[in-house]
């Protein structure tokens, strides 16, 4: 599947997107080429953050002339997330990204400034047209409930959380909560942030077998699995154009129920942890 509705925003967004954390500023030409190749292949959902060093500037270069095609997401760090701080951070991100608006603006993780302040800041920005929607990241169910109480229904566009084959904690409660409340679920670090199952391991062999049946790669199989549920999205990062195309090919991989069951058994979700894992 190429795109699906992004929470309650009414926008269709590419199910596989592109992350930009730890993008290599010293190889920015490669990073720009990779992001552009991804956008050309339909990976138009681009995730960045004020915290990601040079990433916003690299994204600006990559999306030059392509802004209308891209669903652009950035994030404010909790330390800046007062009502006025949100406005200031957003202005700076817009300047680095060389654009006049973000499609979605996220609180990077729950912090110590009152959530009421952050949400008031987001709503100011939305009314001013500087952001078209806002969401949260690394929010567990109790944080989501608190945000919902403050903002009211259909305001939280998405929750961006850790989700890969060996870290499926969000399946216990966060995914069901988001599905029930019209909140898009964006899984980050789908390849374990570079710690992907070794091809020689039992899990790696299962992935390879399924990949062979679909004439695709183990990474594409992982992305297909991680976006199998309605309302879910995934944002792999790569600094290489060929890998961006490989990641894009995951949208054509339709896993069978048997294959999903096999992956489920090989990479079990485990018990619900006491707190939400995050990077
Ligand atoms: P990923 O799980 O996306 O893994 C990235 C690693 O996988 C890189 O080493 C990359 O190498 C490699 N890779 C990518 N595609 C392929 C492929 N097809 N085949 C083989 N290797 C591949 O890690 P991230 O932690 O970067 O997560 C993705 C994005 O999620 C981040 O970039 C960021 O935007 C977001 N994120 C959000 C967080 C939050 O708190 N909200 C926290 C962490 C991430 P190479 O680049 O050399 O190809």
Automatic annotation (TrEMBL):
Q: Name one GO molecular function term.
A: oxidoreductase activity
Ranges of residues in domain NADP-dependent oxidoreductase: 16-265
Q: Which InterPro entries match?
A: AKR, NAD(P)_OxRdtase_dom_sf, NADP_OxRdtase_dom
Q: From the Swiss-Prot or TrEMBL record, give the protein name.
A: NADP-dependent oxidoreductase domain-containing protein
Question: What taxonomic classification does the UniProt entry list for its organism?
Answer: Bacteria, Pseudomonadati, Pseudomonadota, Alphaproteobacteria, Hyphomicrobiales
Superkingdom is: Bacteria
Query: Signal peptide span per the entry?
Result: none
